[in-house]
Design a protein that fits this description.
With 67 residues, the protein is mostly beta strands. Helix content is 0%, strand content 51%.
Length: 67
């Protein structure tokens, strides 16, 4: 079975007014919903491996440092 783990949250982007550019960003995750490929809810315990929930990092590419 394929399960969608849908994570809500928001992105924080930091802008440096001296450098006149963004210097970093990160994703702050909130609640998760677990559903099958049709959007029907599924038991989140299906994602538990060795007592921990399976997850991937929320990688965000950081801007280049202009200095």
């Amino acid at each position: 079975m394929l399960i969608n783990k849908v994570t809500s949250g928001f992105v924080v982007q930091v802008f440096d007014t001296d450098k006149r550019c963004f210097v970093s960003q990160n994703f702050v995750n909130g609640e998760c919903a677990y559903e099958d490929r049709r959007g029907n809810p599924v038991d989140p315990n299906l994602l538990v491996l060795d007592g921990e929930e399976a997850t991937l990092p929320f990688d965000m590419v950081q801007p280049d440092d202009p200095s």
